[in-house]
Design a protein that fits this description.
Blueprint (H helix, E strand, L loop, with lengths): L1 H25 L10 H4 L3 H7 L4 E5 L6 E5 L3 H22 L1 H8 L3 H26 L3 H14 L1 H4 L5 H32 L4 H10 L3 H16 L7 H5 L5 H22 L9 H25 L5 H25 L4 H30 L6 H15 L4 H16 L3 H27 L8 H15 L1 H4 L15 H5 L1 H16 L12 H57 L1 H21 L1
C-alpha cells in the first residue's frame, strides 16, 4: 500500500501536467478549465503518503540508485508541505477566476499565463515532494532543482515589469545557489565516496575541509531559506506573485532550504570538529542578524506582501539559529529538532494563511469588518507565539534550550519574536489601508479559513513522534506571550514617528540594489572593452571591405580581358604560330 501511495505521490503531478496539456489543445478556450478537480488533486496522494506510516524504498534502476524514505523527520515535513500546496491550489482556483474568464473571452495573454502556471505548478509540487522523501544525492538534487526552476512561473505570472524584476532576481539567486549546491555535493560525495545524504553528513564530519563543504551547501540551500545576504529575491518576488503562489513560496518552498540543512549537516554529532563548531557559530550569528535585521527593515515597507516577506526572512533567521545549535551544542539537538519541525510546520500554515489573507483584504467578502480583521489577525497572533500552535511551538524550542542552559539564546529569540509581532501588525495595517470591496469567492475564503484552522491546531494533525511536544506550563505562558503586545507597541510608536515621512518607505529588496550597483560598476570597464572591440571589429570589417573592393576591381578587369581574348582567339593563334615558326627558323640558322 505504501509503495502504491509513493508511486501516486510522484506520478500523479505528472498525470495532471499531461492532462492539462491535452486539455489546452483539445478543448475550446470558451470551455477550458485550467484548475479543474484533477488539477486541485495534485498534492493529495503526497498528503495521504505522509499519514501512511514510516517506510523505506530502494530502487537500484533509478539513476545512480534511489534511496527514498519516510521517517520521523520527513513524515511531518511532507504532511504540512502537501497540505499547504493543496490549500493554495484551491485558493488559486478562486484567485484566478477573473483571469480565467478573460481567457475564455479570447484574451491570448491571459490564456498563455494561465497555461504556464497550470503546467508548472504541479511540477514545482513534484520537486518539493521528491526532495522531502529522497535520501540519495541524485534524487534530492533533482527534486530541489525541479522545484527551483519550475517555480519561476509562480513569480513571473502577471508579466508586469515588477514581476519580471522579481523573477529575474529569483532566477539569478537560484542559479548561484544551484552552483554552490552542486559544488558542495560533488566535493563531499567525492571525498566520502558516497551517493547518499547520510554519507554526505559523515563525509563532512570526517573530512579535513568539512567546514568548507558545509559552507558551500549551507549557502546554496540558504538561497531558498532566505539567509542574510541571499534573501533579496523574497521581498522582490512576493509582492508581484499571486497570493497562492506567495503562500507556497514562503510557506513550503522556503522550508526546503531548512530541511536540506538538516539532511546534509552533521547535526547533533558529539564528534563535531572545531572548524565545524566555528562554522556553526557563524551560522548562528547570521541567523540572528536575519531575525533582527529583516524585522527592522520590514516595518518600513508599504506593500503588505513585502512586509510579510521580511517576516519570513526574520522567522527563517530564527530557525537558522536553531539549526546552528546542532553544531554549536550537539547535545541539545535530539531534544530540539521536534520543536523545530513544529515551528516550521506552524510557520508554513500561518504564513500561508497570511498571504492568502492579502487577497481577502483586496476582495473583502460581505462579512462584518471586525470579523474579517479578527480572522486576518489570528495567524499573525499565533505566529508571534501568543495563542494556539504558536504558543506550543515556541515552547517546543525554548524548553530544550532551558534544559541545556542556553538562556541567552532564548532571550534573543524572544526579542526576535517582538519583531515578528511588529511586522504582522504593520502588514495588517497596510492591508487595512489598501483594502477593497469586491467579494472573494468560496474557493478563496474557504481555503483561507482552513489554513487558519490548520495553523492554530498544528500539533493536533502533524505526525510528530509521540511525546515529543508538550503544552507549556501555565507559569511559562506570560514569558512566551509578552513579545506580542510589545511588538504591537513598537509598531504603533514607529508609525507615529514616521508619519512626517508622508508615505515614503525604504525600497523592497534592500541589498539587491547594492548588488546591482556593484555589478553596474564592474560592467563599466567591461562595456568599454566591448565598445573598443566593436570599434576594432568595425575597422577590420571596413578594411576588409576596401580590400575586397580593390580585388574585385582587378577581377572585373581580368574578366573583361577574357571576353576580348575569346573574340580574337583565332588571330592570336595565327600570330603565335608565326612567331613560333620564326623562332624555329632562327634557331636553325644558328
Amino acid at each position: 500500500m505504501m509503495t502504491l501511495l509513493l508511486a501516486l505521490a510522484l506520478l500523479w503531478p505528472l498525470v495532471v501536467v499531461g492532462w492539462t496539456l491535452c486539455n489546452a489543445y483539445r478543448t475550446p478556450s470558451v470551455r477550458r478549465d485550467y484548475f479543474s478537480a484533477l488539477w486541485l488533486s495534485a498534492g493529495w496522494p503526497a498528503l495521504l503518503l505522509a499519514y501512511g506510516g514510516e517506510a523505506q524504498w530502494t530502487l537500484d534502476a533509478w539513476m545512480l540508485g534511489g534511496e527514498w524514505a519516510l521517517n520521523s523527520l520527513s513524515r511531518p515535513w511532507l504532511a504540512f508541505t502537501a497540505l499547504l500546496w493543496s490549500l493554495a491550489a484551491f485558493h488559486a482556483r478562486g484567485y484566478l477566476a477573473a483571469e480565467q474568464a478573460k481567457a475564455r473571452d479570447g484574451d491570448q495573454d491571459a490564456e498563455r499565463r494561465l497555461l504556464r502556471l497550470a503546467l508548472l505548478w504541479p511540477l514545482t509540487l513534484l520537486g518539493n515532494v521528491l526532495l522531502i522523501i529522497a535520501q540519495d544525492i541524485a534524487s534530492f538534487y533533482l527534486g530541489f532543482a525541479l522545484m527551483t526552476f519550475a517555480a519561476y512561473a509562480l513569480v513571473v505570472h502577471s508579466g508586469s515589469q515588477e514581476a519580471r524584476l522579481g523573477a529575474k532576481a529569483y532566477l539569478i539567486l537560484a542559479v548561484v545557489g544551484e552552483g554552490l549546491i552542486l559544488g558542495g555535493f560533488l566535493w563531499a560525495a567525492g571525498e566520502a565516496d558516497t551517493l547518499t545524504l547520510q554519507g554526505v553528513r559523515e563525509g563532512i564530519l570526517d573530512a579535513e575541509h568539512g567546514a568548507w563543504m558545509a559552507t558551500l551547501l549551507c549557502l546554496g540551500f540558504g538561497v531558498k531559506a532566505g539567509v542574510i545576504g541571499l534573501h533579496v529575491w523574497l521581498p522582490l518576488a512576493h509582492p508581484v506573485a499571486p497570493a497562492p503562489a506567495s503562500a507556497v513560496l514562503s510557506g513550503a518552498m522556503i522550508k526546503a532550504g531548512l530541511l536540506s540543512w538538516i539532511s546534509v549537516l552533521p547535526l547533533g554529532d558529539e564528534q563535531v570538529s572545531q572548524s565545524l563548531a566555528h562554522f556553526g557559530n557563524l551560522m548562528l550569528m547570521a541567523g540572528l542578524a536575519a531575525a533582527f535585521g529583516a524585522a527592522l527593515y520590514g516595518v518600513f515597507q508599504r506593500h503588505p506582501k513585502a512586509v510579510l516577506a521580511y517576516s519570513s526572512i526574520s522567522q527563517m533567521g530564527m530557525m537558522t539559529a536553531l539549526v546552528a545549535m546542532g553544531l554549536v551544542a550537539p547535545d541539545v539537538w535530539p531534544l530540539l529538532w521536534p520543536g523545530l519541525v513544529l515551528f516550521a510546520a506552524h510557520h508554513a500554515l500561518a504564513k500561508g494563511a497570511l498571504f492568502m489573507g492579502t487577497s481577502i483584504s483586496e476582495h473583502l467578502p460581505r462579512w462584518p469588518l471586525p470579523l474579517v480583521w479578527a480572522l486576518l489577525a489570528l495567524p499573525g497572533i499565533s505566529l508571534a507565539g501568543a495563542i494556539g500552535a504558536g504558543l506550543i511551538s515556541k515552547w517546543g524550542v525554548k524548553s530544550p534550550l532551558y534544559e541545556m542552559h542556553h538562556e541567552s539564546l532564548i532571550k534573543l529569540l524572544s526579542w526576535a519574536a517582538v519583531g515578528t509581532a511588529a511586522l504582522v501588525s504593520v502588514a495588517l495595517w497596510r492591508q487595512w489601508q489598501q483594502r477593497h470591496q469586491g467579494g472573494s469567492n468560496r474557493e478563496q475564503w474557504g481555503a483561507w479559513l482552513v489554513a487558519i484552522a490548520a495553523a492554530l491546531l498544528t500539533p493536533l494533525w502533524l505526525p510528530l513522534p509521540a511525546g515529543s511536544i508538550e503544552i507549556p506550563p501555565l507559569k511559562e505562558w506570560l514569558g512566551i506571550m509578552w513579545p506580542l503586545p510589545v511588538g504591537v507597541l513598537f509598531a504603533t510608536v514607529g508609525w507615529l514617528l514616521t508619519r512626517p515621512l508622508k508615505g515614503k518607505s525604504l525600497p523592497a529588496g534592500d541589498l539587491w540594489w547594492f548588488y546591482a550597483a556593484i555589478v553596474g560598476a564592474v560592467m563599466v570597464p567591461v562595456r568599454c572593452f566591448g565598445h573598443y572591440c566593436a570599434q576594432v571589429k568595425a575597422a577590420s570589417v571596413a578594411s576588409a571591405q576596401k580590400t575586397e573592393a580593390t580585388l574585385m576591381g582587378y577581377l572585373t578587369r581580368l574578366l573583361s580581358a577574357e571576353s576580348w581574348l575569346r573574340h580574337h582567339a583565332s588571330g592570336l593563334m595565327m600570330v603565335l604560330a608565326v612567331l613560333l615558326a620564326a623562332l624555329l627558323m632562327w634557331e636553325g640558322q644558328r
